[in-house]
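Quarterly update, task 2.4: 6-O-phosphono-beta-D-tagatofuranose-bound model.
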Amino acid sequence: MASSKPAIWNEKLELPGHVRFMEGVGDLSMLNVISERSTAEIYLHGAHVTHFQRNNEPPLLFLSQVSQFADGKPIRGGIPVILPWFGPREGQPMHGFARTSNWDLKEIVPAKNGAIALRFRLEADETAGFPPFAADYLVTVGDTLELQLTVTNGSKDKELSFEECLHTYFHVGDIGATGITGLKGVSYLDKVDGFKQKTETADAIKVSSEVDRVYLDTTGAIEIHDARLQRKIVIGKQNSASTVVWNPWIAKAQQMSDFGDDEYLRMVCVESGNVGKNKITLAAGKSSSFSVTLSTTPLM
Ligand code: TA6
């Protein structure tokens, strides 16, 4: 595939043998990243990580075979960056505008243990009722995938209240042989039951119908136990109080034109951030960060 670099590309950012600029799907600019232990693909569109795979392992992330890759459209799969709101908003796109904005690649630096760190930045003017803000997104590709999202309130006098979420789609071998642990006892809003507030009772959440749950005031690590791939995915997080678990199941999968009818069988979203009552409020000029670390181990 021809390597094409947009006008903004800066040669000094290159890391020969490790980071290559390419034309991705839909001719969107994509970075192909090769670390000592893994590979990744990241689009400037939404600073969207669409692929991460540790050497000799199945891909960690799910990406729909029928996703759109076009300006103004969200990519279905990988890690959508949800900012500055989560969910619907009157007259505005679902899940905010960060995931359909073009982010700037600011730097690429070698990191510890042969990892590669890439920093993306989005500067948003006052829009959609939000004061100006900047988002810096540090993606570190190595034996693990580390994501850190920092938001800075660019206003001189207004506070910034916002929601943030890394809406990660994980690849699983078979949703029917998958359990999600780490949420027992946590309160959640059940979006498939009128947003009723409930408390998780399962040691391991199993998916056998549409699941759409917003867990609040929860900071612990989550695990995805995949019996088909014999893999455990560990989702560690810092400064994130919300976790969302979503699988569209059959009917919703059929309703989504950018999602294959049977793709619900091979994915689950476990999303980390600060949404709803956990939203963040920043005084003028202040910043906040949260981070997520994704790792895998064999399922013993
Ligand atoms: O995080 C779960 C959720 O809010 C679901 O309700 C569903 O809408 C999903 O996000 C996908 O949203 P999207 O706008 O990407 O189709």
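Highlight for this quarter: Residues 74, 87, 94-95, 167, 191, 212, 244, 246, 269, 271 surround 6-O-phosphono-beta-D-tagatofuranose (CB under 6 Å).
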